[in-house]
Amino acid sequence: VQLQASGGGLVQAGGSLRLACAASTRFLSSSKMAWFRQPPGKERELISALTWRTGVTYYADSVKGRFTISRDNAKNTLYLQMTSLKPDDTAVYYCAADRTASGFSSDWYNYDYRGRGTQVTVSS
């Protein structure tokens, strides 16, 4: 499975962006998907995740209430709608997938499939 994140760009503080993560093959119903980000000079962090079959979601406190994760089964695509963006949201955003739905690991390397990132820059 190959994952490709897209939709990043430059946006002013308070603006919105929608990221998409397209998969090369259909996800298993038992999979979970996640969005990570890596701000400049910092560690990569888990910010949101969901289980593909049930749609159970997770959000990091830093994005809760501002970001929404969703999926389109027909398009085999994961989305991250980001609103009320802040300069602290500036990072490279990555998507990942795992074949098991149990738990939302915060360790990037625990995911079976890891995509290339897309840059999001929020100006003040």
Short structural description:
The chain is 0% helix and 48% strand.
How does this structure look, described?
The protein has 124 residues and is mainly beta. Helices cover 0% and strands 48% of the residues. It is built from no helices and eleven strands. The strands form two sheets. Strands 2, 4, 5, 6, 9, 10 and 11 form a seven-stranded mixed sheet that branches. The protein has a four-stranded antiparallel sheet with strand order 1-3-8-7, with no helix packed on it. A hairpin with a 6-residue loop joins strand 4 and strand 5. It is globular and about 40 Å long. The termini are far apart. The relative contact order is 0.33. The model has no long low-confidence stretch (mean pLDDT 93).
Chain-averaged pLDDT: 93
**Helix content estimate:** under 10%
Oligomer: single chain
What summary fits the major beta sheet?
Answer: 7 strands, mixed
Proportion of β residues?
Answer: over 45%
SS-based structural class? mainly beta
Integer-rounded radius of gyration: 13 Å
